[in-house]
Amino acid sequence: MSKSNIFYKRLSKAVAQSGKSMNSVERELGYSRNVLSNYKNETEPSATRLIELSQYFNLSPSYLIGKEDENILVNPNLYFKSLKDEQKLEILKLSQDWIYIEITNFLKHRV
């Protein structure tokens, strides 16, 4: 698979996960209609457009163009939203345990 096909595949996935259409993303970013769909035809984004899209979707530019296999989310809030409810609960429990330990240690050293 060519790099531009990887880019289009990952762009399409990001658009789908956002719950928006390609056209709505284009409108929000001020792009011409169907400019994102044109990447399906082996064209590659400019550096500026690549950065804009990576910031819009909070993805690494390297991931979008196929240089990295892992989806690196830049925004921790988006990462948290991508977790399953069970995973969110586990983070909550770990956070509560950590807070309890920190408060206990703080109070011990304060006296």
Structural summary, described in words:
This protein is mainly alpha-helical. The chain is 64% helix and 0% strand. The chain has helices at residues 3-18, 22-29, 47-57, 61-64, 76-81, 85-110. The longest helix is centred in the last third of the chain and has 26 residues, at 85-110. The N and C termini lie far apart (64 Å).
Summarize this structure as a short list of keywords or feature phrases.
elongated, mainly alpha, 111 residues, 6 helices, 64% helix
Look at the helices and sheets and give the structural class: mainly alpha
SS elements, strand count: 0
Strand content: under 5%
Amount of helix: 55-70%
* Major sheet description: none
Rg calculated over all Cα atoms: 20 Å
Shape: elongated
What's the N-to-C terminus distance? 64 Å
What's the overall average pLDDT, rounded? 87
Order of helices and strands: HHHHHH
**Poorly predicted runs of 5 or more residues:** none
Count up the helices.
6
